[in-house]
Amino acid sequence: MIVKLRTMFSLRPQALLAHCILVLWMLCVAPCVRGITYAESAPDLRQSCVHFGGEIEATAHKYRLDPTLLAAIAAQESGSPGEDSGNNIIGDHGYGYGLFQIDARPRSAHMDFTSSPNAMVPAYNADYAGLILRNFLRKYGDINDAVKAYNAGIPMCGDNKTSWPSIGQKLCYLDSVLKHQQDIVTHQQDPSYHC
Amino acid sequence: MRRSQILISATIVATPVALSAGSLWAQERGYFPARPTGVSLNKVVGTLLDYGIGNQSGSFTIRESDGRVLEFYVGQAMRIGDKIVRCTVPPIKDFVPDPQLCADWPTNVKLGSTEVRVVYWRSEHEGETVSVSDEINPLP
Q1: What is the pTM of this model?
Q2: How many domains does chain B have?
Q3: Which residues on A lie below 8 Å from B92 (Cβ)?
Q4: What is the model's pLDDT at position A6?
Q5: DSSP-derived 3-state class of residue B48
Q6: Under a CB-based contact definition with an 8 Å cutoff, are residues A86 and A52 in contact?
Q7: Is residue B114 part of a domain?
Q8: CATH of the domain at B89
Q9: For chain A, how far is it from start to end, CA to CA, in angstroms?
Q10: Tens digits of per-residue pLDDT, B13-66?
Q11: B61 vs A contacts (CB less than 8 Å)
C-alpha cells in the first residue's frame, strides 16, 4: 500500500513518512497532549458508549461542568435527536467546526482557534467548548442561561427549530439540549441499554 | 504547491470528516448576516445592556429611555466605535472573560451603563422580522 501511495503521489520517502506521522499524530497523540489527558478520567460516559465520552469527561472535569450536559450539547451541535453525543464534522456550511461546532466565521475571537488544526481534534474542540461554556456560566451564574448563550451569545432560547420525532415536537436550543441530557442520563441508568 | 503538501493539507481537512461520513446532525445554519448593499438603515439610542457571540448567532440588547428593551442580531462584522471587535463574551461588572474569548472589547464601553447609538436594518429570519446591527457607536 505504501508503494502504491508513493507511486500515486510521486512522494519521496521523507514526505510519505511525514504524512504518516501527521495522520498518527491527529488520530492518537493530539488528544493526549497539553494537559488534555483523559485516559484516567471518570469512565461514566464511555461506559455508556457516549461517542467521544473520554474527551467530554476530561473537559467536564477541567471546567467543573456536568459531563452529561456537555455530551448533550455535542449531540445538539453535531449529532441528531436521539443521539447521545455528536460527530467530528465540519457543519453549518463550512462554518461549524468539530464535535461542538465552534463557529469559524472571520472577525470572531473563535477564529484564532478554528484556524488551527486542533479545531478538528475532538479533545481540543471539547476543551474550547468547555472554555466558552465556563465563561458564560461565570458571566450569567446560571447554567441554562450559559447554554442559551453558547448558541445565541446572550440568554435567548431561540426559535423552536430542532424537530424531535420521538415526542412529536420542535424544541428550542436549550430545551433540545436538556432533552438530550435527559436521554443520556436515562441510558446511563438503564443496565439493559445497549449502544 | 508540491503534491506532497497538497496531500498533507487534504489529510488535515479530510480525516475527521471521513471518520464520520454519513452522519446526520442537528446543527442549523448560523445567522451572522452581512449588511446588504443599499439596505435602508435605522438608528436608535439606548443603554447597552448585554452583548455576546454564540456559535449560531450573536445578539445584544439595549434599553431605550422609555424603558423598552430592544434586541438585535449581530451582523458580520461588528464595528464598535471606530474598530472591528472580535470579542465574543465581553466583561460585565465583576466578570472578566478569558482573553482567548475577548481581548479587544473597547474600554469605554461598559455593559449596563454606556449610552450607544445603534445602526441597524430589518431582515427576515426564520419567518420573523428581526433587527440586525453591525455598528454600535458609544455616545460621548
Answers
A1: 0.80
A2: 1
A3: 139
A4: 52
A5: strand
A6: yes
A7: yes
A8: 2.40.50
A9: 34
A10: 444 443 343 334 445 678 999 999 999 999 999 999 999 999 999 999 999 999
A11: 154
